[in-house]
Amino acid sequence: MLQPEQAPYVRSIESVADEQTPADAFRAILDFLRRQYRAIAVAVAIALALGFIYALTTPPTYTATASLLIDTKKVQLFQQQSMFSEMPMDAGMVESQVEILKSETIALAVINKLHLDQDPEFVNPRGGLIGTLLGVAMGLFSSHEPPSDFAIKRAAVGSFQGRLEIKRVGLSYVISVGFKSLNPDRAAQIANEVADAYIDDQLESKYEAARRAGTWLQTRLRELRDQASTAERAVVAFKNKHDMVDAGGRTINEQQLAELNSELVVARSKTAEAKARLDRVQTVLRSNSPETTVLGTVADTLKNEVITKLRSQYLDFARREADWTVRYGSSHLAVINVRNQMREIQNSIRDELQRIAETYKSDLEIAKQQEESLQKQLDQSVAQSQVTNEAQVALRELESNAQTYRALYDNFLQRYMESVQQQSFPITDARVISAATRPLGKSGPKTMLLLGAAAFVGLAFGLAVAAWRDFADRVFRTAHQVEASLQTDCIALVPSVSAQAMKAKGSSQAGSIDLPDQRETVSLAQNVRLLAAGYQTIMPVDGLYSAILEVPFSAFAEAIRSIKVAIDLSPAVSGGRIVGLTSSVPNEGKSSIAAAVARLAAQTGARTLLIDCDLRNPSLSRLLTPKAKFGLLDVVRGQSTLEKAIWIDPATHMSFLPASIKGRFAHSSEILASPAMRKFFEALRQHYDYVIADFAPIRPIVDVRAATNLVDSYLYVVQWGQTRIDFVDDALHSARTVYDHLLGVVLNKVDLRALGRYEGRGSYYHHDNYQRYGYSS
Fold it and tell me: Which of 54, 138, 655, 706 has the highest CB neighbour count under 10 A?
């Protein structure tokens, strides 16, 4: 059955299925080229013609090229650091220089220097014939007022930038500067001027930057000088206010505190020393031992002459006493006198030690008083230092500000001196390594390249137009399209036959061999016999109706025979075959096909009835029996018998039942669907071998759908190259019963010569519309 969701068939060039072989795809492409080669050839020819005209009429241009090097080595004439930031020379930097060369600033510099805004080549250029025509066309729609200076300048800039070619040479730091002109000397001159203008622009930009920096530095230096002076004056005023005198990097208070601290340490040392001497003397005095008194050592006793002399006498008496004791005994008067003298010496030494102790005591008191005085002074200095330290915090902040401003001032002063020096000698990073010279040959237009490009563009445009035409051609062209889109058989391709060609072929085939059952002519006597028997005869009609008899060996006749063979091979129905013919829209040739099939079947000797069932537009009735009084409606209504309404074709004995409509008939579908009509067709099945019914088209009216129960099968006629695929698909989708009884589709009015361009395989068969096999003309 027909799938309603199935997309319309797309031509083979657009729907090469995955399962197709490369050979099939190649044939599809060849078929596409065979169909559309005229459009492609016309597009290529037009493009080549335009390219050739352009090449002939366009004046030659010459290109001169200069080369610039972006030098990464900096010339260091000054030891100090440059005030310009040194950016790394990378690909982005080089591309930036390329854009600067393309800028309008460089273009205006060259235009103003060479007065190019007064040169007609730049102000009012003409690009040959095509450019002249475009200029004339634009002049028709533009005002006739003279252009302003600004407009002239802008036109010159646009033309200049269009002729300028700036590009980087590979991955190097070299930039190529090319310029096109009608004059070779002019091209070289402008290319060199562009390079010079770029270098001048670089120098000017650096000079201007140094000048602006110097001006700003001057203003900033004045501000920093004032700020540094103000900060230093604030430091001096703060010191004077707080009596902070600097002495060797320290204040007087700090120096005094350090001295007092040192003196206090010395005083404490003296006090301790005096106390130690006093304690020693007192220890000796507190001792009751005479030896301790005499032999006790105090630092100052060693220097006392009295004690030293007394100690010597005492030691002398001690020796005597020991000697005399041994010699005279301890009770001897001399020994006793010596001992008494020794005791007196001890007392004298004690008295002298007491005097020394009093001296030590006095020294200790003096040392203590001096220590206490120094401690008081130190405490006062410490208290004063705390106040001074708080002031020093503010002082250090003021001094830090003053030092900062002074350092900034010195730094900016150095930078200012550098800027002044660099203003007098600015350097650039670019230099010309190859100046442009006069070109020896033209650079354009390149005729062969231009024609090749024109041919390519024409081919591409032609293929695009051809593809659009092929895609927009949404009609049936081949049997394969019918079978793929409608999922049914394409029974025959009926060629389009003109009346002149049919007459010419008919005369050439007049002497051909007759087949056994063939009747090509009917004698007048035979026609008289039919009239005498009461039959109404169809008068001879020219055109396709007579093509079966007049050109029996034509492609048209063979196509009709293939239709009859398909009818014969269809499932047999007892009593005869009733076949209906319909189409999607009017004028697709279904009536002519119906008449041709019926005459062919009758020509073979079969009982054949052709019925005009198109009750809205009975074209067969008007063609074959324009004077008929009775027809199908009269027989079904019982107003006439079948014998009275039947007309006979004298040449083939085909019976024809006209519609015989006297006026416009609105309820034709009701008549076709009536039981009387069904009964009538069942009766016809018993009397005829073939019943060929010509029905109305599906799309305009519903008659065909109402007559489904009358026929065994349908033949669907589609006009080749005219009826849209979606029309046929929608028509069959709306008439499911017709599709269910569909015997096949007939492509009518086929242009056999054009068919070969849509169906490459077997296209050789279509070279001769009336080619006969087995017979010579």
Answer: 655
